[in-house]
Amino acid sequence: MPNLKDLKVRIDSVKSTRKITSAMKMVAAAKLRRAQEQAEASRPYAQRMERMLGSLAAAAAGQAGAPQLLAGSGAEQTHLVVVATADRGLCGGFNSSIVREARRLVRSLVSDGKTVKILCVGRKGRDQLRRDFGSMIVDTIEDVAKPKLSFDKAAAIGTRIVTMFAAGEFDVCTMIYAEFRSAISQIVTPQQLIPFAPPKAQKKQGDGEEAPEDGLNGAVYEYEPGEEEILTELLPTNISVQVFKALLENAASEHGARMTAMDNATRNAGDMINRLTLVYNRTRQAAITGELIEIISAKEAM
Amino acid sequence: MAEGKVSFELVSPERLLLSEEVDMVEVPGEEGDFGVLARHAPLISTLRPGVIKVHDGGSVTQRIFVAGGFAEVTPTRCTVLAEEALPIGEIDRAAAEQRLSDARDDLLDAQDAIRQAAAERQVKIAEELLKAAG
Question: What is the pLDDT of residue A231?
Fold first, then answer.
């Protein structure tokens, strides 16, 4: 028979846990809304960038002098995997599912005989990957979302990736992050950053013979200064933009995942309190009944 | 869309700053300023630090400083992707001066060619920003 006092202590502790998880859920919900707004606000830039780059890339692809960021360095030996996770835990399977995908990718690359380097964005990713692939982690970038996720921070990461590429430290760069669908669904997405892979929708049209859009009537763009100069500026910027987009998606996903996880935790805590209270009351009644029997039998014996 | 108007959009990575129908936009292109009217030939250009002037109804309605970026022009629209954009009225002179002196310090400290180029760019942006502040 459980001790009454122990039960009481236990119920109180679960109650305070519930208080914490429900507060965390509320905070996550508020942050999620903000993160979502930020992600939506950044979408126009990324879309227009993509449109511009699509038409430029179609024009420049296959030319001998195409920049390496577009055409690749000609080798596929060394891969850089950028793993974007959260800095903090307590958000359900969010970090683990990103790390799982990263592990899978790294293992398959290694078994193909490639050299792999890992760049972690977010503490949790590093913590989980360090054990298996400690020697491959080149660096960890922390606290990207503190105090606020800004384009400058994403640009710093982007510049770093481009500088490493320019120094010949890797040939192919893939970034893994969680794309935000809804608070209960985040999709882990690997995205190739270098060489530039045109979005799938454009790939189908192929061969640079894209359907002209809004008033262009098949006219070709003029480029100022030149195609190549623009590409050499546009491609690194695009990488920063892609990183920024991924980080925003990730932030929204993280808060969404945390909100769901904390919602579950709050509900579970409630269930547990109910169960424990039931046991507590039963025990109390049993104790009273026991005492009554004692009193009555004592009286009868007199 | 109104005849003879250009739909002008100014976008920064963080948000859409401006989207309106105007008569003409003056954009600081890498190889010189250019004005965009309706039915302009399709053009993609990089930008240098400078001021975008929005003309509407015969006068300049807005002046916006941009630190660089890209412009895409089609016969019906003009889209500017700016890395940093600030309406002229909101430029803080003291902050701009501070930025210029910081950038100059960075230029002196620059170790390698890449950093030097980046610092030079920052100096140029800060100079233009000050100039724009008037």
Answer: 83
- Residue B1 included in any domain: no
- Nearest 5°: the CA angle B56, B60, B61 is 70
User: What contacts A252, CB < 8 A, 6 or more positions away?
Assistant: A32, A35, A36, A39, A180
Amino acid at B122: Q
**A116 bridge partner residues:** A79
Q: What is the mean pLDDT of residues B47-56?
A: 91
| Structure letter (DSSP) for residue A220 | P
Band (pLDDT 50/70/90 cuts) for residue B59 is confident
Domain boundaries, position A283 = 4-20+262-301
Q: Find where tokens 């420049």 sit.
A: A60
What does the DSSP 8-state code read for residue B42? Answer: P
Domain count, chain A: 2
- Asked if B12's CB is within 8 angstroms of A224's CB, the reply is no
CB B82 within 8 A of CB B122: no
CATH of the domain at B56: 2.60.15.10
Question: Taking a contact as any Cβ pair under 8 Å apart, which residues of chain B between 45 and 104 contact chain A?
Answer: 45-46, 70, 72, 74-77, 79, 81, 83
Residue type, A74: G
Q: Is the same domain home to B117 and B56?
A: no
Side-chain-side CA neighbours of residue A290 (13 Å)? 7
Cβ neighbours of A212 in B, within 8 Å: none
Predicted ipTM of the assembly: 0.79
Is A91 designated active site? yes
Residues B20 and B77 placed together within one structural domain of the fold: yes
pTM reported for the whole predicted model: 0.83
Residue A103 pLDDT exceeds 90: yes
Containing A192, the helix (H) or strand (E) segment is strand A185-194
Question: Per DSSP, which regions of chain B are E strands?
Answer: 6-11, 16-22, 24-29, 32-36, 43-47, 50-56, 59-66, 69-73, 77-82, 85-87
- At A174-188, the pLDDT tens digits run 999 999 988 888 999
> Taking every pair of C-alpha atoms in chain A, what is the biggest distance, in angstroms?
113
Over range A30-37, report the average pLDDT: 92
Cβ atoms of B49 and B71 closer than 8 Å: no
Residue numbers of the domain that contains B122: 91-133
Chain B residues with beta carbon closer than 8 angstroms to that of A154:
13
